[in-house]
User: Fold these one by one.
Assistant:
Number 1:
Amino acid sequence: MSIRIDNTKCIKCRACLAICPGDLIEFDEILGATMDKQQRCWGCTACMKMCTKGAIELVATDYKVSSPIIEPDDNQTCHHRMSTMTTQASDDKVTWTITKTDGEKIIIETLKSESNQY
Amino acid sequence: MKIKHLETDILIIGGGTSGCIAAKVAAETSDYKIVVCDRSYIIRSGCLAAGVNALNAYIGPDETIESCLDYIKEEFDGIIREDLVVSILEKLNDMVSILEDMGLPILKNTNGSYAMRGKHSIKINGENIKPILAKPLIEEAKVTLLEEVYILDLLTHSGSVVGGIGYSKRKKSLYIIKAKATLCTAGGAAGIYLPNNQGQNAHKMWYSPFNCGSGYAIGIRAGAEMTGFEMRFIALRIKNTIAPTGTIAQSLHPVHRNRLGEDYLKDYDRVTTELRLHATTQEEEEGRGPCYLDTVGIDMKVSNLLEKAYLNMAPSQTLDWYDKKMPTDLGVEITGTEPYIVGGHSGSGYWVDYKRRTTLKRLYAAGDVCGGSPKKYVTGCMAESVIAIETIIEDLNGLKGIELPEMSVVEKITNFTNRIDEASPNDTKKLEALELQMQKIMDTHAGGKSTNYRYNSENLRMAQAEIISLIEITEYMVVKNGEALISLAELRDRLMVAIVVIAHLLERKETRWQCYQSNTDYPQKSEVYQCYINSRYDGNQMIMYHRPLVRKGLGYEHTN
Ligand SMILES: Cc1cc2nc3c(=O)[nH]c(=O)nc-3n(C[C@H](O)[C@H](O)[C@H](O)COP(=O)(O)OP(=O)(O)OC[C@H]3O[C@@H](n4cnc5c(N)ncnc54)[C@H](O)[C@@H]3O)c2cc1C
Ligand code: SF4
Ligand code: SF4
């Protein structure tokens, strides 16, 4: 499980750069934000919450020893093998969008002012 | 490489939970200059990056300091520093008020009291807890923030700690920070043992993979006394994502079932955290695993609330449920983690006096890095940090007028940062291989998950020899760039912690706790070890001490 950055969506705003607790995100003048240390990502989603463009997604994994992050490509079946999650954070809430392997989208909102019930 | 010199009154190493609150209190109650140094960015650094969803240490309406002390004592079979634990308990509920005042949402009952989760936890929305703690510091004029600076070592002079040396890979700079007092709040250690997941998922662990034990290692290298490194913390967590289970276990009280559908905890009359882990490990070992928290058939509404609770703390778990099976359809599979060294959960860390002074002059410790007082969690770490900073202010007031010594630090700098040589081959893979080698040795020979946490003296001696040879390899390793230098620093810190863990495991010749410390040469408890196991590294070897238990009301002070 790690994040993946979609550079076609990245507007190079740099908001996600100084946030990662492991300092894993780099910047490329041409591509924008990049992260190539998948094996070091904790999956904390701190970077995702900074991105207003939904360019960073968390990719699920089957937790086999070295299951690779599947890169987006033309092969849709390959791209959709794992569910993914993106976030939109605002001052009062975080909106989480999960895209399941069959393409179904689940949207969950967590309000910042509302405590967990559990 | 550029060298930057800084001078301050108080240096805080690690801007996590403990570091942030210490800086806030120091800024509010004194005029001292403060430098907070963190290896990453304090807005989301440390354990709290993704959030937490309960404050696990709170004295509820039906509890007292006395009853909480008894609970913690029972959980760790008496091997706790009662003086430290009581001093934390006395401040716990004030920390909750501070967090609420800073804007943390806490669930309330209709009568205005906090909604409890079990006896000692209160329910919050902790997704934003780290930004809440960090933001005031970013705006505070008395605080200089040094972010993305990895502390490599302490600066010492005539037996006192006088600051630290840090390295920034992005600014390609070395920082020499002189300070009149230094507070270590750099967290515990993950990644010493082979983690539950490997390869691409290696960092899907419970404890922060970015807390590499530096907080311990800098002190060990400088000769500080450490306690309880044999009291490893092993958590019962959700399989694969290694997300916390307390949210489900303490709210829904699901039955723990093995694959035969049996409630495997029902025959225990008293279930401690340690026993729950031990029982689960035993089920797996005897072929009755996998084990589950039986959530099948829970209400959809409940399931939706759980999904939200996890998004606010361990978001990968909610994604994993949607990717595979929902908790309404399949029980939540649980298993033991690799051993972590975490003073905020068990008792490993600096040996401190009642006021959180370490055995090194002018070095103080609090939070996960500080030993003797388990079950601190967020609020306990904060309470301890407030005690430490109050001591620092008191000590500095007494020192008024003292000047920081001029000193030569050339030796320390050349020791480590001169190891960058751009002509050397790209060694990332080599460093990764060495890290894996360390984790594997610890796993198979020092009581990792693959041996169901058991070990014996012969295994430990083999592990000791292998870890020493890894230390020797890394001692002379030259790396290509700053990035690799940080990886080397992480490995160096983890190896230092590993060697101390082994020394402590060798020294406690009994089995005091199942899983945490289970020695097959000495499978029983022994009265002789009704004490703390402490150690000090003198530059060549580990010197071990057995220290008598400190009971409440005694306020321990360093004497020898
Ligand atoms: C996943 C998870 C869930 C948890 N859930 C709960 C919960 O629900 N309730 C609860 O009460 N407690 C919970 N805890 C425990 C609690 O979060 C910790 O005990 C507490 O936050 C520790 O505080 P700390 O200041 O000691 O460490 P941290 O907050 O981790 O701070 C350590 C800091 O030191 C920095 N650092 C590390 N090495 C270096 C170096 N070499 N140089 C410079 N800086 C460095 C790190 O970047 C970090 O910012 C949880 C812990 C984890 C890991
Ligand atoms: S998910 Fe967390 S650990 Fe992973 S890159 Fe983003 S901020 Fe870093
Ligand atoms: S926050 Fe999003 S858009 Fe901005 S640089 Fe990062 S990935 Fe690109």
Number 2:
Amino acid sequence: MNRRLLRKLRNGAFLALSLLATLLGLACLAAILWTLLAHGLAGMSGQLFTQMTPPPGEKGGLLNALYGSAMMTLLGILIGSPIGVLAGTYLAEYGKNSRLSVVIRFINDVLLSAPSIIIGLFIYELVVVRMGHFSAIAGALALAVLAIPVTLRTTEDMLNLVPPGMKDSSAALGAYPWRTTLSVLYPAARSGIVTGLLLAIARISGETAPLLFTALNNQFWSTNLNAPIANLPVVIFLYALSPYKDWQDLAWAGALIITMTILLLSIAARVILAYLQTERGFK
Amino acid sequence: MDTFTPAGTILNGASVQDALMSARAVNVFYATKHAVKNVSLDIARHQVLALIGPSGCGKSSFLRCLNRMNDTIQGARVEGLITLDGQDIYEARQDVAQLRARVGIVFQKPTPFPQSIYANVAYGPRIHGLAKDRGSMDELVQTSLERAGLWEEVKDRLSQTGTSLSGGQQQRLCIARTIAVNPEVILMDEPTSALDPIASAKIEDLIDVLRTNYAIVIVTHNMQQAARVSQRTAYFHMGDLVEVGTTNMMFTNPQQKLTEDYISGRFG
Ligand SMILES: Nc1ncnc2c1ncn2[C@@H]1O[C@H](COP(=O)(O)OP(=O)(O)OP(=O)(O)O)[C@@H](O)[C@H]1O
Ligand SMILES: [Mg+2]
């Protein structure tokens, strides 16, 4: 009787503690969102999407930064995700237990949790120093390096979710492994792999540190891959620290845009994943 | 008697006239585990051969040797001679994809590909280039589904995904998929153990019909099923082939005590 009471108490205490922790986390999140909305919405206007980042004291928008961010994110994904997807495929289907796979998996885990500023410095040394100047392509490369581990991991995990019988059935019909991979495994894991891509986009589109050392910034409209380019994270970083009210407002608006984009991408990723699990009937 | 091989004599009833496939002194190892021991067994044309025996006795392992599905298992090693129409299927110049087109396999758990019903059936023919144009592919898909006894149920929904079918329908889809590449032998590893009795009965009927065109080897734990669908039965025990003969003889008058115990145990 006493024991039972004790257990109940302990249960209750743990429940209360975890509820408290959850509430604390949610409260922080709500506070952040609230602040963002309060300041960001004030700065929202049509100008944001039609005008360039202004000099101090003038009104302006974020068009060049939005464009720069979109382009570098796109390029980063285009360069990084094929590498991630192919390497993930290798790990899941070809070299499952090979020594090489163990090494790749380890490095990937390190990469996954490496501070992004390190990646920025890496590309700085490798590309910026050699080219002699900051550039959009260097920024895209840094983002690509960040996208690789995310897509690699999700691809491997999702391919491992495909029932092994499916692979055997394809082999049993006389398909070579590459054929099985393309015609059966990728379609079976499609939603999962797409989810990985969305998560990777979400991850890289908000990164500041790697871009500070690579793409830097540009006050003006530029589409030149070989030159510094404006981008939201760095603009936010610089403008938020500035003493000018106009710049600070722009920084808030930019922050709101990025946050909303990432939020939407993450929700989309979750919805797709849920679809994958019900539709395909995987356990 | 030409039934002497270096690895030992062949059991009475293990060899048949004009065999389609022949296994001689086949051994299967997984790392150190000796799963199939010195098995010699023939597969006759237009017949169903049932492989029975307690769990873990090597039925699936032997079955998978017949179209080299063991090649995909890490650490698996196969010894001995297996021929298809007199050709050694393990020789170096044997194209494994080609072999699997001639010796198809249906697994225990139905695994339709995440594609339409049509694409599931067309998958094998596309790999092997069996249809010249859209029209002949349509025809091939239809005859395969007809032979698998599924056409009437799916002809209006060929573009739906294979997973939208019931378990029994999925298994017949997998059979249709196997038939579509026009094999000579169909291997089945407990094809009905995941199905309810009605769906199982349909598959059993189907097996009896398929026999006119294909040689069939079926692994089953269901004694009644073995008795119903097969003409020959082979009993495995701990990796050994203990006895093989006509199904009738095996179930009414087994020669070995092990066989008798197993069969009668199952009959209760
Ligand atoms: N991939 C594998 N790796 C290692 N050992 C295996 C593997 N597959 C089978 N074995 C072993 O080989 C032996 C024979 O297995 P097999 O699957 O052929 O038996 P089975 O007669 O089909 O059994 P069941 O009726 O349970 O399907 C078993 O002892 C099993 O543990
Ligand atoms: Mg088995």
